[in-house]
Amino acid sequence: MAKLVSKVYGNALFEAARDCGKMDEIFEEVQSIGVILEENAELQKILGNPRVMREDKEQMIETIFRGRVSNEIVELMKLMIEKGRYSKIDSVFEYFIGLVKEEKKIGIAYIATAVELSEAQKEAVMQRLLQTTKYESFEMNYQVDASLIGGMVIRIGDRVVDTSIKTKLYELSKSLKKIQV
């Protein structure tokens, strides 16, 4: 259900941003609002509190954000309050950001390696990803996972390329178990 809410409202904001020609502006505002909401737990509590009247929450959104961010964002936030969906605002913004990045051909890659990669190795990985994917740039996220033993695991969206020794050993052990002696 949460994914459906994120998708419906995220798509609506994306279409509104595209229609009014303010994709970049709204993209930056959504990222900024995400930080503001994350840093202001008290505001999140009030906006998410079912005992606070809907009209009061909408007035807070008006007071805090009107004139500071695009009308499309203010109206989205008010609509989500009206429909009782405000608790999903973070996932809606996250979904919208993903749509914009996809539109701009910005990939998000998560790379896990057994040891820290040098800057030259990181650059080589990024160049290889640029050559083998549809993306024109990447946000690279590196993580060291010693349990991989060697190799790397690359995740972009729902695609995973796992060349780790850990996985190869696992696959080898599965194959050996199938052999009848």
What does this 3D model show about the protein?
With 181 residues, the protein is α+β, with helices and mostly antiparallel strands. Helices cover 61% and strands 14% of the residues. It has helices at residues 2-19, 23-39, 41-48, 54-65, 71-82, 89-103, 119-132, 165-178, and strands at 106-113, 137-144, 152-156, 159-162. A 4-stranded mixed beta sheet has the order 2-1-3-4. The radius of gyration is 22 Å and the shape is elongated. The termini are far apart.
Please indicate the percent range of residues in DSSP E strands (runs of 2 or more).
5-15%
User: How many separate helices?
Assistant: 8
The secondary-structure element order is HHHHHHEHEEEH
Name the shape in a single word: elongated
* Count of individual beta strands: 4
Return the average pLDDT rounded to an integer: 94
- Ends: how far apart? 49 Å
**Helix fraction?**
55-70%
* Main sheet attributes: strand count, strand direction, barrel closure: 4 strands, mixed
Spatial strand arrangement across the major sheet: 2-1-3-4
Look at the helices and sheets and give the structural class: alpha+beta
Radius of gyration: 22 Å
- Low-confidence sequence ranges: none
